[in-house]
Amino acid sequence: MLFLKRCSGWLTVAVCFGSLAAALMPTVALAAVEAEASSVTSTDARNSVERLRWLRAEISRHDELYFKKAAPEISDAEYDRLKREMLALEKAFPDEPRAPTGATTSFGDDRNGRFSNYRHREPMLGLEKAYSRAELRAFHSRLEGALGRTDLIFVVEPKFDGIAISVTYEGGRLVRAVTRGNGQEGDDVTANVSTIAELPRELRALSLEGVRNPIPDTVELRGEVYLDYAEFDRINRERIEAGDEPFGHPRNLAAGTLKQKDPDDVAKRGLRVVFFGIGAWQGATKDRPDSQQALHALVRAWGLPGIGAFEMAANADDAWAAVERLGARRTALGFPTDGAVVKLDAFAGQRRLGTSEDAPRWAIAYKFQPERVTTRLRSITLQVGRTGVITPVAELDPVRIGGASISRATLHNAAEIARRDLRIGDFVFVEKAGEIIPAITGVDLSRRTPDAAPFAFPVGCPSCGTTLLRAEDEAATRCPNGRCVAQVRRRIEHFAAPAGVGINGLGPVQIEALVNANKVSSVTDLYRLRREDAVSERILTEIERSKRADLGRFIFGLGIPGIGRKTAEALATRHGSLAILAKARDAELTDATRGLMAELVALGVNPQAGVKMTRSGPGPLAGKTVVLTGSLKGWSRAEAAKRITAVGGRTTTSVSRRTDWVVAGEGAGAKLDEARVLGVPVIDEAELLRLLQESQAGE
Ligand code: IVH
Fold it and tell me: What is the position in ligand 1's atom list of the atom closest to the CA of 157?
């Protein structure tokens, strides 16, 4: 499982990018904008208007990227900064015509033209935002003033970071699920949302306590579709194993998943849903809940997923304390949150306050600040992947963020470095929000030294020296030399890893030694190894065993372009054995692939479909050090530890470089971060179970 170590870089993948253009625009200080218009000189005013126009265009571009493409370029914090600057300028220059796009609402439009549209019975609104304790206080005072009383009760809830959804039940039956769209009309994603396991088709008429629940003729429930961190990590692990770039943010992945055309594809990713509001309610009028608290109780009584982690607050200080508690707990919650929502509890008060243009006046979202630190960019190194793709990595002066130390962050590609104009020696900003991977979000230009030169992307491969290539329509730079030692090593690592055929004892260190000694330069060479090649008996036995491995894993392990895990499994089921497959005519198989397979068959390799992995010698957990963190679903940590010990492994409580695996359960926090920083492979409960089963299979 050591293979995951080399992937540790993905865990520091940069997720959000600032726009260089934003940095180049003349920055107008907010204070200047808010100053009296008469004191602004005409040049300033012209610059400001230009800035405002630019901001509108830029924000609308980011709205499009965020809402329609689910692929934002900048962090939420950066977006919010642009937005606030625009709002301040709009105040100062009210005569400037507003942009004709969705940029003027607080949430754009998520419809992408590929689903039928559905009109909400009640509009779906956004939330006003607060960034400081003072702004929360002001919200509180505003409500006290408007309602003429000081005994207001508030509910403080986590703000789920996913995609807004409206789910309609008619006569207690699920009939429709629609995205927010432009607030009035959204995309009908009923088929996709119906795949969510925790979403019941019918509302429970009797609560678990035996109380009759109201079943209105029609109720539109408002909530959020999201991905929890356990599922997000599982999906990314699979992508890494398949050689794909991992997803950067669970929200974008959830948004992309919700908009898949085929519900079967949606079902493969464990989307979740939570409810926290009501849109329309028709029938059973007198049973309508009269407070946010009562709404939470009803959601649960109906058998729907509701918010567990909410708190009540009787004044502004209590509300602030609850917000801070939530902020401190956020990584332990197990789902992505980007803030806390403070809501007036009483619906009567909510009705009296009403709504402004696109947000209710009775609620406010406090956005947690991403933690931001500054550190020095020491150098940029290049990693070579098994397909030759070059990934630049920022090597940083170690810095603590989110309770862990980081010293590396992936920079994606050459264009990214150029866009940010990153220079060696620069002081860069590193941000981390919640469980999200730390990312470089900008450069502190005020600390740049005059001798800092733009980064010259190396011309040659760091491993074999071959001139690197970059296709015009591609972001990736590649090493075109298929015999490049770094690529060869990565390919063999991929093959020998548990997701491939799983050759115990053949890790990156052994592979590097074999490749450097010219003993192997391909997967086929593994099957030519002899005792004289200074390979241990144990590894030879394992290689021998892999000749009868499961065919699907074997094909996947070969890492053939265009043959991911799914295709590999399909080919395996269709043909049954490598010998047959080597002669098959499927479109995915090129002559070169068939040649490779025939060569393997000639070497006595013949994996079969549906082979249960059996093992000789010690199991995969023998002698391994495992750290369990977070809560496991199927068993207690103590039970899991006992089973690990029973198959020869040991468990410890702290993560170090000597840890072999960290098993992350729900709500895993600091230890998970440590693992990521140290490059210790992280596995989930299902993977642990598989390892245990495999350990027992050979006994
Ligand atoms: S209340 C009428 N509560 O944030 C306002 N929204 O930025 C309805 N969100 O559209 C929203 N967690 O999709 C509310 N606890 C929560 C939330 C929440 C996440 C989302 C929701 C909303 C968006 C506004």
Answer: 15
Same domain assignment for residues 181 and 293 = yes
Same domain, 193 and 169: yes
Spatial separation of the C-alpha atoms in residues 267 and 272, rounded to whole Å: 11
Same domain assignment for residues 76 and 221: no
Query: Six-digit token pair at 622?
Result: 């023998």
pLDDT tens-digit map of 521-549? 999 999 999 999 988 888 899 999 999 99
Instruction: Give yes or no: residues 150 and 259 share one domain.
Output: yes
Q: Is 225 in the pocket of ligand 1 (CB under 6 A)?
A: no
Cβ atoms of residues 626 and 650 within 8 Å: yes
**205 within some domain:** yes
> pLDDT digits over 250-302, tens only?
888 899 999 999 999 999 999 999 999 999 999 999 999 999 999 999 999 99
DSSP helix/strand/coil, 282: strand
Q: Is 226 in the pocket of ligand 1 (CB under 6 A)?
A: no
The CATH number of whichever domain residue 643 belongs to comes to 3.40.50.10190
- Does the beta carbon of 366 sit less than 6 angstroms from any atom of ligand 1? no
Helices marked H in 330-444 — which ranges? Answer: 347-353, 414-420
Helical spans, DSSP H, in 427-507: 485-496
Note if the pTM is more than 0.90: no
Substitution candidate for ligand 1 out of 80, 105, 106, 127 with most atoms within 8 A of CB: 127
Q: Do 385 and 363 belong to one domain? A: no
Q: How many domains does the chain have?
A: 5
Same domain, 644 and 569: no
Q: In which domain, by residue range, is 67 found?
A: 10-104
Q: Which residue is closest in CA terms to ligand 1's atom 18?
A: 159
Q: Does 159 qualify as catalytic in the annotation? A: yes
Residue 454 in domain: no
Same domain? 21 vs 89: yes
Ligand 1 mean position, distance from CA 81 (Å): 20
End residue of a domain, out of 321, 346, 367: 367
In a domain, 285, yes or no: yes
Q: Flag the least confident range among 40-49, 141-150, 346-355, 641-650.
A: 40-49
- Banded pLDDT at 403 (limits 50, 70, 90): low
Per-residue pLDDT band for 154 (boundaries 50, 70, 90) equals very high
Report yes or no: 272 and 163 within 8 Å, Cβ to Cβ: no
Domain annotation covers residue 145 = yes
Q: Which two tokens stand for residue 345?
A: 């509890």
Query: Do the beta carbons of residue 645 and residue 670 sit within 8 Å?
Result: no
The answer to whether residues 211 and 357 belong to one domain is: yes
Instruction: From 339, 367, 395, give the residue that closes a domain.
Output: 367
Q: What CATH code is carried by the domain that includes residue 416?
A: 2.40.50.140
Task: Please report, as a single letter, which amino acid is at residue 603.
Answer: L
264 Cβ neighbours under 8 A, 6+ residues apart: none
For ligand 1, whether the C-beta of 160 sits within 6 Å is yes
Pocket test for ligand 1, best of 341, 343, 366 (most atoms within 8 A of CB): 341
SS3 state of residue 165? strand
Distance 358 CA to ligand 1 centre (A): 12
